[in-house]
Fold:
Amino acid sequence: MKYTKLPNTDIKVSKICLGTMTWGNQNTQDEGFAQMDYALDKGVNFFDTAELYPVPATAETYAETERIIGNWFKKSGNREKVVLATKICGPGDYTAHVRTTGFSTEALKEALENSLKRLKTDYIDLYQLHWPERQTNFFGQRDYKHNPDDAWEDNFNEVLQTLDGFIKAGKIREIGISNEKAWGTMRYLEESKTNNLPRIRTKQNAYSLLNRTFEGDLAELSIRESIGLLAYSPLASGTLSGKYIGGKLPKNSRFDLFPRFAGRYNSLQALEATEEYFKIAQDHGLSLTQMSLAFINQQPFLTGNIIGATNLKQLEENISSIDVHLSDDVIDAINAVHNAIPNPAP
Structure:
């Protein structure tokens, strides 16, 4: 395994981060336990979850993933071996079953206390805001279109003040953001610098060969401001494993079980790009999965590559990508496809 640190901290984390989004829906508790055992044995010490998981989010399965992790901590006694990240979900129609109060002080307190109970721990290493409260372009929206009727009011200072209280109480160690844009990130930085408030350490955004939009303003911001990327959906919901090439739809795959998640990856451009990347991998004796993950592992702005799997065979291949180094020839070939078919699945 290779390790780095959460930026400007002494918290050592594996570059491969174990994602948990399927536990409690596609995966049972026993399967989640097996994945955590295997990952820890392979040197993965960084686990990421969220109060909203598993996804698709429903009232019936709400927070089941955190419960599974908490049960594993209780059974294994491995809490101190893990750098644990979780998230409070933002507002939206799909989270109304959780709460409708956004990132208010009361909402943050409720969310954190409930996560601590479910996870059976006294503290969270990295506490993240799952997406912005304001209306902006995230979750697959290409461009920003301003809504003058957005009821959101600037509360960056209030949010950081509340999180600062959690840090001082020993309930969280560091903070991060997710699905955030450049403007929101800079507002958090401005408030932390001006008012001596906690600093954002990481940004968890989608990043894959089919969605390299992070490489715009966010990459420069990440490097110049030392905010590490936690890349989620690095295989584009399994598309970059190659299992859907040629119109295949494996039984019990994510797109088979939840067809609505397949939309952005089924465009002609996304399908064409995936096939071109598959050819590059074949030409260089690589699996598409490992090439796709290794590309992310080599990025200078990366802190953690959040891999997810529904079985141990997938998990083994994903974790072992850390040992794959892509040559300049492979990188050049990947970039040629990207230049011809840029970001077909944002």
Remarks:
- The radius of gyration is 19 Å.
- The beta strands are 3-5, 12-14, 16-19, 46-48, 83-88, 124-129, 172-178, 200-206, 228-232, 302-307.
